[in-house]
């Protein structure tokens, strides 16, 4: 892996019985960049995400995550918990998975549970008395507050997450993932269900995460206005294989990409050709 790469996927294959959902897929995501994985419905994008984040064990191939300090972690050998904790890969899902009965702030505090438990020394005494825990708790509250501000939800801190508007919940999910201070943020269709104004706010948020914090982002997205506006690099899949990759402009003009989308849904094809222009 080159030093500029945070993620290297090499010959990834995932079979479900007779179905080959992903076949021999290789691509890389660069550090401090936004990489998008696109393709028509059923192309295999979510399966790739599930392999990267440890929800599936790949049938073949390797997935390497390279940290800033030079450590390289073989993700295909770890389960989802270790991938989140050791490899520092955070993800969101197509369907919102907040704790709806907890407040917005509480959702962001729960995300920092691991760090807080570590600070407690995993003891009751640590939880109730140790200064190191109180410091960690203050830091956790500061981080959560900072994220509520960044996603424009500071005034909703004490409202139940389930009562927030859909677009607000989507941004809160991203804030929750960011509170784990990930090396790689994986977002599965973050713009799904958003209106044009909310999509624009999402693009702005993701660009600020890249530009201000230098977090690497991998995203699956069908909303081409978002993809074409914010991506540094796009990987296009169809029927489990990579059919193209490149800059937004290269991908948009690639006849193989247009043909893949034309083969499925006219609206999606039109969106790829028009997106970002
Ligand atoms: N757990 C599973 N068991 C069996 N088949 C699966 C499983 N998960 C995915 N598949 C199949 O793998 C293929 C790729 O699906 P996947 O959900 O990865 O595509 P996708 O590109 O994310 O699609 P979409 O854009 O619609 O979310 C599909 O044919 C799907 O039916």
UniProtKB/TrEMBL annotation:
Gene3D superfamilies: P-loop containing nucleotide triphosphate hydrolases (3.40.50.300). GO terms for cellular component: plasma membrane. This is Amino acid/amide ABC transporter ATP-binding protein 1 (HAAT family). PROSITE patterns: ABC_TRANSPORTER_1, ABC_TRANSPORTER_2. It comes from the Bacteria. Belongs to the ABC transporter superfamily. One of its GO terms (molecular function) is L-phenylalanine transmembrane transporter activity. Residues 7-264 form the ABC transporter domain.
